[in-house]
Design a protein that fits this description.
Helix content: over 70%
Distance between the termini: 53 Å
GO biological process, one term: iron ion transmembrane transport
Subcellular location: Membrane
GO molecular function: cadmium ion transmembrane transporter activity; manganese ion transmembrane transporter activity; symporter activity
Largest sheet: none
Number of helices: 19
CATH topology: Amino acid/polyamine transporter I
Shape: globular
Number of strands: 0
Radius of gyration: 22 Å
Keywords: Membrane, Symport, Transmembrane, Transmembrane helix, Transport
Protein name: Iron transporter
Oligomer: single chain
Length: about 450
Amino acid sequence: MLRKVKKFLKALGPGVVTGASDDDPSGIATYSQAGAKYGLATLWTVLITFPLMAAIQEICARIGLVTAVGLTTTLKKHYSKFVLYLMILFSVPAIILNIGADIAGMGAVAHLIFPAVHAMIFSVLFTAILLFFIIYLPYSKFVSVLKYLCLTLLLYIIVPFFTKPDWGAVLKATFIPTIKWDKDFIGMLVAILGTTISPYLFFWQTAMEAEDVKAVKRQVMINKRLVNINGDHRTRSENKTRENRLMGLLIQKMGLDVNLGMLLSNMIMFFTILATGTALYSQGIRQIDTVEQAAKALEPVAGRASYLLFALGVIGTGFLAIPVLSGSLSYIVSETFGWKGNLDKKFHQAKPFYAIIIISVVIGLLLNYIGISPVDALLYTAILYGLTSPVIIAILLHIANNKKIMGEYTNGKLSNFLGFATLLVMSVSAVFLIYLQFTS
């Protein structure tokens, strides 16, 4: 059984890690708020977020495979500096705030498990462990660790079975949308969209696919040299055919990987809303402001086992998401300023790249010392993500339909339909987000 699990995890690519990292502690907090405040009323959103997320992440992955560079490098090559720096202006602060909120959430739930140890001590400890893994583990092992951490997300699928939901009501809430035309409910829908379709995932997915395809190309070049040494010379057209076939296989595998990753992400969202909507809403607990409150609130309702599962899941997802967040930020900044480095390189070979990771994680930790609460950090993060997403999605669609960049691998009709649907939904969400901020 263990061998089969290892084989399965080895076959998975960046899509699964990307999807799993989307369900970070801040995301879990948002889904918990939705469940506690509105019960099962927002379960239907998974039917919208899954196809939209899958479409956008597939576009990002294909861009990474075809260009073999990160999204920031593609922006730098083909767009004005204004667009590039605008993305940095919005993305970098949002990612750092997201990191800070996640570290705080991890420390808080660890404190609930071990009350004798202060939450900030856990936050510092988790930060040190994360930096050690990111800096000293080779990329291949680093990705393997992330894949195993994806298994912690399965804990959220287990939790609802402790709360014994009415499955008939669950099916009804899932397939018959409930919409309340009030500011708070619309705001919750906007928060769910902003949490699931986040710009940092675009940069990470593209960069990781680019890393993978570069590794494949290096192996292909080695094989070509061996073939030439053995005297088996192929024509240019034959080599081109083989390369096209290889790219087709990579894109096919990538599609399955991305769809599986986004499915996992949305399943966790679904079951988190279900768990808190069943255990908390029905008991009159309507307000959940932090992840630790969600974990604590489940204990008297669903038993200590449910509470422990929830808390351990938060810590596991934090270890999964923070490397993705800090890695995304480092790729953005390093590619912008032309600094050489990636996760394949050791620390001494890419000091600026790893310095950005260290600085972003440390600043995220320090935010918890200067009076910015995790709740405020989540709010500011959602605002910045909500404003940035439509612009980046529009650029992604332009890149994915540009034959000069993508060659024969431009968007198909389905990718364009879902991509423009995502752009429309996120643009409307951004407008609502701004409206809600000025009317609250």
